[in-house]
């Protein structure tokens, strides 16, 4: 069975030494986010996830959720409901939510390590509270005053959970095709919602008495396509304007999916039959509210890739130190033993260092995105708030797609470190690989993230987010240009930043003549961007470690991992750049019929 211990030392380094969280919290007016408080939160989160959630991970995978077709009820695996109650009793559901709605009002960025720990400890369990945060953010930004008052408090406190009901059997990414309909009721306030949604995470469960569904539907006068989408809040049990909970609504779970992984996460078909709901935001304005939910969820899913990668690394490292096999090529390292541990072998080190460099770099990317959300909410300067919003929007598809794709790579490498023992259930590593596979699919596939990055976040905005990020890179390069200890990172980082800007300009220019160029370049552009972003954070990690009070081994570990990243991972950009420069022709030239019968 795999084990997990939260990497508090590296989380604190990332928060305090690299990101300067203490000064940031003070500047943004988070009076309660002192270092003592933050450390206490991290310690308790590590205790809860390590001792309560992690032991349930294999149980959830073996037992899964069960569905009663007669009642439509879903029962979660043993211990899951009790763990959720401990989660609620500990105040974790409202850690970063506003105090006005029952939350603790701590910085959003503190939710990042909490969610990483949850995902590492028990990804399937973590899916139940995950989408409540998206529902909270959507209602905060787009809900009416009474909706915020009635729905937000029980969601923030964890007494209710939330879902996102977007996908339909015939309609995934292209939501303009959805068939769910909403008609106004005679009371002049509510609507009747009818239709079927699929792949609804936590759509039904036994954790809470009520579940709040945020549902995309179309009104009778809706214009065609995505512009005709509206958003409705539809509770499992009817809720009046004064907060009174009434009879069962016309909402029922039709079935749950049988999946490759995350078997303890209820993935539901939800049927709405004249269910009572309330319009959120304006009519036909659901797309904006949807993206508020979606972007929150996408950053959260990126953290799933990090969490799974961290757990995979810890167990692969332990196994590599224990497993004896063959001798080092340069001679026996442990002559008193019958063989050397496999960590002496270069290829095992390649896999371990690949995981380590991608995990620790990704952690900084995720924490940076979280801190930008805080800046966008709390900074005194309107321009700083606007720039933070633009930058986190730009980084969201990179975070979601790269961190989840790297999660698959990392869990694969962990299985490979175990050899045949990784393929069997005994060590729990194969579960991590199976669970990781979904993360590149839900909340928008990798291809959708790539199109979002090159299309909406770059072409449509004239590269606004990229320019802001490159400005940060250039400022860092200028700050350290005369520091010989940093030259091995500063010179290639500066070169990659220039190439990133040049590739972007080239793609956008080609797309003026052929729009297919955007789609053809999108995948490779996404990963090129992700590897350069991590190169920046690894350079900053070395600089922060050099200036820190951490011990020599810690500082040397950061330096050597950064060197590995620059030597072995960053060159992947060469392949992506070559693919981008090849243009659309190699992809689009073949006629459909020539693909085969």
Automatic annotation (TrEMBL):
It holds the Pfam family Acyl-CoA_dh_1. It is an enzyme of class 1 (oxidoreductase). It catalyses: 3-(methylsulfanyl)propanoyl-CoA + oxidized [electron-transfer flavoprotein] + H(+) = 3-(methylsulfanyl)acryloyl-CoA + reduced [electron-transfer flavoprotein]. Residues 285-452 form the Acyl-CoA dehydrogenase/oxidase C-terminal domain. Residues 164-274 form the Acyl-CoA oxidase/dehydrogenase middle domain. Its cofactor is FAD. SUPFAM superfamilies: Acyl-CoA dehydrogenase C-terminal domain-like, Acyl-CoA dehydrogenase NM domain-like. Belongs to the acyl-CoA dehydrogenase family. Involved in the assimilation of dimethylsulphoniopropionate (DMSP), an important compound in the fixation of carbon in marine phytoplankton, by mediating the conversion of 3-(methylthio)propanoyl-CoA (MMPA-CoA) to 3-(methylthio)acryloyl-CoA (MTA-CoA). This is 3-methylmercaptopropionyl-CoA dehydrogenase. The lineage of its organism: Bacteria, Pseudomonadati, Pseudomonadota, Gammaproteobacteria, Lysobacterales.
């Amino acid at each position: 069975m795999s084990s997990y211990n939260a990497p508090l030392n590296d989380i604190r380094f990332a928060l305090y030494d690299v990101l300067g969280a203490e000064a940031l919290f003070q500047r943004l007016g988070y009076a309660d986010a002192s270092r003592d408080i933050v450390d206490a939160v991290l310690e308790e989160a590590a205790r809860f996830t390590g001792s309560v959630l992690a032991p349930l991970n294999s149980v959830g995978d073996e037992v899964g959720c069960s569905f009663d077709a007669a009642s439509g009820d879903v029962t979660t695996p043993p211990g899951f409901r009790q763990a959720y109650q401990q989660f609620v009793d500990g105040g974790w559901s409202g850690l970063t939510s506003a105090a006005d709605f029952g939350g603790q009002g701590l910085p959003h960025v503190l939710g990042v390590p909490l969610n990483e720990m949850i995902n590492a400890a028990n990804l399937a369990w973590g899916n139940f509270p995950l989408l409540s945060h998206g529902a909270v953010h959507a209602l905060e930004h787009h809900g009416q005053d009474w909706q915020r008052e009635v729905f937000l408090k029980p969601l923030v406190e964890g007494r209710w959970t939330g879902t996102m009901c977007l996908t339909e059997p015939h309609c995934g990414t292209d939501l303009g095709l959805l068939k769910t309909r909403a008609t106004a009721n005679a009371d002049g306030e509510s609507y009747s919602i009818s239709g079927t949604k699929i792949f609804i995470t936590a759509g039904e469960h036994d954790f809470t008495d009520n579940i709040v569904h945020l549902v995309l539907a179309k009104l009778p006068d809706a214009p065609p396509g995505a512009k005709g989408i509206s958003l409705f809040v539809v509770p499992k049990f009817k809720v009046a304007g004064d907060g009174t909970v009434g009879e069962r609504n016309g909402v029922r779970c039709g079935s749950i999916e049988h999946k490759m992984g995350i078997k303890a996460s209820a993935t539901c078909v939800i049927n709405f039959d004249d269910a009572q709901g309330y319009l959120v935001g304006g009519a036909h304005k659901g797309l904006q509210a949807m993206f508020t939910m979606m972007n929150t969820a996408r950053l959260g899913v990126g953290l799933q890739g990090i969490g799974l990668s961290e757990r995979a690394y810890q167990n692969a490292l332990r196994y590599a130190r224990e497993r004896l096999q063959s001798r080092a090529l340069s001679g026996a390292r442990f002559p008193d033993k019958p063989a050397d541990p496999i960590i002496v072998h270069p290829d095992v080190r390649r896999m371990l260092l690949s995981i380590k460099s991608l995990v620790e770099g990704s952690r900084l990317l995720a924490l940076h995105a979280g801190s930008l959300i805080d800046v966008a909410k709390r900074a005194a300067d309107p321009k700083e708030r606007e720039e933070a919003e633009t930058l986190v929007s730009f980084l969201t598809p990179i975070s979601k797609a790269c961190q989840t794709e790297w999660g698959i790579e990392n869990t694969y490498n962990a299985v490979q470190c175990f050899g045949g023992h990784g393929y069997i259930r005994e060590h729990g590593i194969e579960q991590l690989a199976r669970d990781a596979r979904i993360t590149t699919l839900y909340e928008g596939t990798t291809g959708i993230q790539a199109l979002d990055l090159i299309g909406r976040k770059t072409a449509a905005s004239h590269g606004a987010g990229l320019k802001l990020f490159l400005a940060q890179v250039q400022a860092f390069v200028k700050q350290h240009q005369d520091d010989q200890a940093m030259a091995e990172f500063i010179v290639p980082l500066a070169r990659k930043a220039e190439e990133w800007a040049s590739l972007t300009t080239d793609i956008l220019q080609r797309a003026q003549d052929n729009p297919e160029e955007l789609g053809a370049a999108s995948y490779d552009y996404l990963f090129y961007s992700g590897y350069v972003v991590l190169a920046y954070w690894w350079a900053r990690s070395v600089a922060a470690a050099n200036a820190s009070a951490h011990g020599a081994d810690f500082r040397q570990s950061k330096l050597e991992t950064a060197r590995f990243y620059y030597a072995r991972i960053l060159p992947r950009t060469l392949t992506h750049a070559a693919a981008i420069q090849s243009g659309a022709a190699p992809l689009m030239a073949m006629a459909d019929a020539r693909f085969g019968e």
